[in-house]
Design goal:
Elements (H helix, E strand, L loop, with lengths): L1 H10 L7 E8 L5 H14 L5 E4 L7 E4 L7 E5 L5 H17 L10 E8 L3 E9 L5 H18 L16 H10 L2 H10 L27 E7 L1 H14 L3 H17 L3 E8 L18 E8 L6 H14 L8 H8 L11 E6 L3 H6 L8 E7 L5 E6 L5 E6 L6 H20 L13 H7 L10 E7 L4 E3 L11 E2 L17 E2 L21
Parallel strand pairs: 4-5, 8-10, 10-12
Antiparallel strand pairs: 1-6, 1-11, 2-3, 5-6, 7-13, 7-14, 8-9, 12-13, 14-15, 16-17
């Protein structure tokens, strides 16, 4: 995965490509020198923050680890700014930091800007490259920075520098093994007969974006009610699957409905931390693996059968999860090099890392974290299961409008709730549109579905509430008994949404695992 990110970054040197950015808003006094020392201590502790790369004149890219680097922390004083000026200037600063390139050959590939604001508020902007850290590592680094800082100002215990895990020889050996014949044979079996990846269509006109925000992905988020989340957990337990499996199943059905095909494939991520020394939760680096998930979703298949198949596939792929994507796509599946698996991406974790951090101690109640991932897929859905299921959709604003993204997210929620209601139902009998959309189609009154208590669109720099998503008038809608699409099974016995099949936009994809040290 790390080598693939490096390759993609060098091949497509757009500003902000594969960059992670976190904004931490703090309503407590921050002592600048102690803050700098805390970041330096964490950089001294973790190899990932001292990592650079070499690739010129080498047969394979190499990861290089410096013994010592100085982690940069910039300080900006905006205490004299008017409140109405602050948000606009923070927006501009975020884009500026995003556009500043990293020298991949020389660490650190991480930088911090601390902004002092009126009313004793602080904004910490942390920007780093995805080639050195994955999402769980980001959470770990932030936790240790604040723990170290709190200890330095006398209100907490220092972080131990002993036994910091790093990738082991066993981890690297397994990565090499997964690229061998065993991995090829496994993925050849999984993807046998696959003709193409399954990207979503370009669904109409996109929203105009200001130049200053053109790099930022669009984001919308939905939170299922506690009742609906509990129903999903009960369903998962009864079927001996997980919430992640339910999300994969709902996404598979959504892809089939939107594209008109019944054999779909999309990307998903695995933690990849099984072979780390020490406590794998304490290791910082890039350990995630991106794998294809294939699902066959004919209309007459029971939902429970689909979910069982997805879970069995997910368990079976663990020994082969580090197989490089080029091997999976080209050598195992026989797909052309131009096939782009990462057009849609699913991710799942039990908790968002901001929620995990807030659970540590009361002081985190004064710290708000907003994360942005300017990486990977044109459309990515992230699910977080505790305490209520949160669905976070990020999308390329050059391909999808906010209204289309909201619609996709609403349909995904509807499918999840329908799955939890009846797992013995056939896939073709699942409704994808909610009560509000049914009333809209029949010119009846609009009513918000009781299953969802929050759907919101998030601008690149701030969040604003939105109304409940509705069907776009330009999209064709079928009624019960409508004829089936020529390339698909009938989408539903209910009133539902059908989109015409399109010719996928092809892009290059090259991602592979690998961590080489010297």
């Amino acid at each position: 995965m790390q080598r693939g990110i490096l390759f993609e970054t060098l091949s497509d040197p757009r500003p902000g490509h594969y960059v992670l950015q976190n904004s931490i808003s703090v309503t407590e006094s921050l002592e600048f020198e102690s803050w700098c020392d805390a970041w330096q201590a964490v950089a001294d502790r973790h190899e990932a923050l001292r990592t650079g790369f070499a690739w010129d004149m080498l047969p394979e890219p190499q990861q290089l680890i410096w013994e010592r680097i100085k982690h940069p922390v910039q300080r900006i004083d905006w205490r004299d700014r008017l409140p109405e000026e602050v948000e606009a200037e923070l927006d501009a600063l975020r884009i500026t930091e995003l556009r500043r390139p990293f020298d991949l050959a020389r660490p650190p590939l991480s930088r911090v800007t601390l902004v002092e604001l009126p009313d004793n508020r602080f904004e910490c902007l942390w920007t780093c490259h995805h080639a050195i850290l994955d999402g769980r590592s980001v959470s770990l680094i932030l936790e240790q920075v604040f723990r170290d800082y709190d200890a330095r100002i006398g209100i907490g215990e220092p972080v131990s520098c002993a036994d910091v895990p790093s990738p082991t020889d066993a981890y690297r050996e397994r990565a090499r093994f997964d690229g061998g014949e065993a991995g090829r044979q496994f993925w050849r079996t999984v993807l046998d007969g696959l003709v193409a990846a399954t990207p979503l269509p370009d669904l109409g006109e996109v929203d105009p974006a200001p130049d200053t925000q053109s790099l930022a992905p669009g984001m919308c988020e939905a939170i299922l009610s506690r009742e609906s989340t509990d129903h999903l957990r009960d369903t998962a337990r009864k079927l001996e699957v997980t919430l992640h499996t339910l999300l994969q199943g709902a996404w598979s059905i959504l892809l089939s409905r939107y594209t008109g095909v019944t054999d779909v494939v999309f990307a998903d991520t695995r933690a990849g931390r099984h072979d780390l020394s020490g406590d794998p939760c304490e290791a910082a680096g890039v350990f995630i693996a991106t794998v294809p998930v294939r699902a066959k979703v004919p209309s007459d298949k029971p939902v429970a059968e689909l979910l069982t198949e997805l879970r069995q596939l997910w368990v079976a792929m663990r020994p082969h999860e580090l197989t490089p994507l080029p091997i999976i796509l080209q050598q195992a599946a026989g797909l052309p090099e131009s096939a782009r698996l990462l057009d849609t991406l699913v991710m799942y974790d039990h908790r968002r890392y901001d929620a995990a951090l807030h659970s540590l101690e009361p002081r985190w109640n004064t710290r708000q974290i907003e994360s942005r991932d300017y990486a990977v897929a044109p459309l990515a859905i992230a699910g977080f299961g505790e305490p209520e299921l949160v669905l976070h959709l990020s999308f390329d604003r050059s391909r999808y409008s906010a209204s289309v993204a909201e619609q996709i997210l609403a349909h995904l929620q509807t499918l999840l709730v329908a799955i939890s209601a009846r797992t013995d139902i056939r896939i073709g009998d699942l409704a994808m549109i909610n009560t509000s959309e049914r009333h809209l189609l029949s010119d009846g009154p609009k009513r918000q579905s009781s299953h969802f208590h929050s759907i919101r669109y998030m601008a690149p720099s701030k969040r604003r509430p939105i109304s409940s998503p509705t069907l776009r008038p330009s999209l064709p809608v079928t009624s019960p008994g409508a004829t089936q699409n020529s390339r698909s099974e009938p989408t539903s016995l209910h009133t539902d949404l059908v989109l015409s099949v399109y010719s996928p936009r092809i892009g290059s994809a090259s991602a592979c695992h690998g961590l080489r040290t010297c």
